[in-house]
Amino acid sequence: MTKTFKLAGGAPFPTFEIAKVGGGKIQIGGAREKWSLVIVYRGKHCGRCKNYLNKLEQTYANWQDAGFDVACISADPIEKVNDDIEKFGWTFDIGYDLQEAEMRKMGVYVSDPLSSQETDRRFAEPGVFCIRPEGTTQIIAISNGPAARPDLDELLDGMIFTIENDRPVRGDV
Q1: Of 30, 83, 129, 147, which is most buried, counting CB atoms within 10 Å of its CB?
Q2: Residue 112's domain spans which residues?
């Protein structure tokens, strides 16, 4: 079993580019003008991921209004991502073909498929990251399975409070 590196709260989030649906690249990590919400999802084979991203679509405008850039990323190939976008109508940025090296740099758990019906490649288990404008982690929520993810309304409410009150990173002792 391969151990996965875990990011610490307040640590710089790894920077990399990932291919973006619709063309171009999404820059993940690094300094920017806004806060970032990065959601790592398992892929087309995961019904819980679809529910989670559907909830994100419902709250997407609220995240934007709060000053967040939003990106969702997975190891799925473009064809699988496009199928889901066509079916669900997601409008946020989605990156595809996430590589295992980047998964490990972010500290998410990595799984092998249980069968070829699930998927044909290793994939990342869920991760949700709130990243400060200077590129450091504020919130890190990772899971080794599909059933544990932060509620997006609660997370947004907490992040608005954090930003408005200039709260520090927690869990750093």
Answers
A1: 129
A2: 16-164
**CA 141 and chain centroid, separation:** 10
What CATH number does the domain containing 118 carry? 3.40.30.10
Residue 5 tokens read as 């590196």
Which pTM value belongs to this model?
A: 0.95
Opening angle at CA 58, ends 56 and 62, nearest 5:
85
Alpha-carbon span 118 to 12, nearest angstrom: 33
Q: Is residue 170 part of a domain?
A: no
Instruction: Domain count for the chain, please give it.
Output: 1
What are the start-end ranges of the H helices in the chain? 47-65, 78-88, 100-106, 152-164
Collapse the DSSP code of 74 into the 3-class scheme (helix H, G, I; strand E, B; otherwise coil) and give the result.
coil
Could you tell me if residue 6 is inside a domain? no
Quote the strand ranges of the chain, DSSP E.
16-20, 25-28, 35-40, 68-73, 93-96, 110-111, 123-124, 127-131, 137-142
Structural domain includes residue 171: no
7 vs 30: CA distance, rounded Å: 15
Joined together, the tokens standing for residue 88 give 């669900």
User: What percent of the chain has pLDDT above 70?
Assistant: 98
For residue 101, tell me if it sits in a domain. Answer: yes
